[in-house]
Amino acid sequence: MKLYLYRLSLKVKEQTDAFERKNSEGNSFERRTWLDDIFSQQFTFIHRSSEFYFVPARQAETNLPHHLISGWIARDKSSVERTPPWEGLDPTEHDSWQASLLIIDPTAHEDGQKLAFELRSDVGKTDPIISSLIISLNERGRSEPFSTSVFPIIHERSFMQFSEANRGKINKITYDVAVPNMFDSADDHTNEMRNLRDKGNISRAKTTLESDGAINIEGTQLDEIAAHVEKGGGTISAKTSDGEKYNSNDYAVSEEVHMNGAEPEGETFWQRIKDAADRIF
Q1: CB 88: neighbour CB atoms within 10 A?
Q2: Are 137 and 144 in contact (CB under 8 A)?
Q3: How far is it, in rounded angstroms, from Cα 196 to Cα 202?
Q4: Which among 2, 85, 125, 274 is placed 20 to 30 Å from 249, CA to CA?
């Protein structure tokens, strides 16, 4: 089993709706309590014209720490089979459900609001499914207190290694970043993004930098932006004058969980998931 890692960025909406949804006690949601509430119940969302389901896992069976959210993202699959020989081997269609594991740390700390999602070929690629899930949350209406962005967590220094290997040749860079809501960095880029969030009501910023020669990486904030992206704060891509390309999504971090024949959703299965969660979160 392979789990790909993502970061959730939740921005407080400017509420213009008098009917903002509250928690069970009538108070405004915090980020953690909102995520707990959203993923405490089954819901559906559309991905590539198909209906997908989120179904919460049974907490008592998972053996996971209580602060973690866990569940399954599922879709139905139809396959053409045949009836048994004694029934004539006639073609018949069989419907089944396949599901990928989803685990979320909703807590607010420097490495919090992280998400792990299982890659399964019979469910679909992780990035597009997670994107569709987040789009569905953002489409729930103005009564919800947060808008959400999600990006993969990237291997450290992958962009800087590319820039060092192609020094003097990078002529185009594009980045798409979410405003930070948990990183405590004091660098100029993070401070600037917080200012855009708080004073300009900005949730994401996308910029393309081009040069008629070569972009001077050292003369920009790109090292700070790349560090922000690597934490799961966005994406960054680049190309050089001789055709070399970099895309941060190609360096997404994943965690391999070796099941070694563990019974699906049995005690050993969940113990190995717990061990992986201890490493991830």
Answers
A1: 8
A2: yes
A3: 6
A4: 274
pLDDT of the chain, 281 residues: tens digit per residue: 999 999 999 988 876 556 778 888 888 899 999 999 999 999 999 999 999 999 999 988 898 999 999 999 999 988 888 988 999 999 888 889 999 999 999 998 888 899 999 999 999 999 999 999 999 999 998 889 999 999 999 999 999 999 999 999 999 999 999 876 655 555 556 666 666 666 667 778 899 999 999 998 876 788 888 998 999 999 999 999 999 999 999 999 999 999 987 777 888 999 999 999 999 99
The phi-psi region of residue 193 (left if phi > 0; otherwise alpha if psi is between -120 and 50; otherwise beta) is: alpha
Q: Give the separation between CA 234 and CA 154, rounded to whole angstroms.
A: 9
DSSP-based three-state secondary structure for 37: helix
Which residues touch 27 (CB under 8 Å, ≥6 apart)? none
What lies within 8 Å, CB to CB, of 236 at 6+ separation is 159, 173, 174, 175, 176, 225, 226, 229, 246, 248
Contact 273, 62 (CB under 8 A): yes
Cβ 92 vs Cβ 125: under 8 Å: no
Other Cβ atoms less than 10 A from the Cβ of 113: the count is: 23
The H or E element that residue 82 is part of is strand 69-82
Instruction: Look up residue 24 and give its two tokens.
Output: 């069970």
- The one-letter amino acid code at 47 reads H
Q: How many residues are listed for the chain in this entry?
A: 281
First to last CA, the chain: 17
pTM for the full model? 0.88
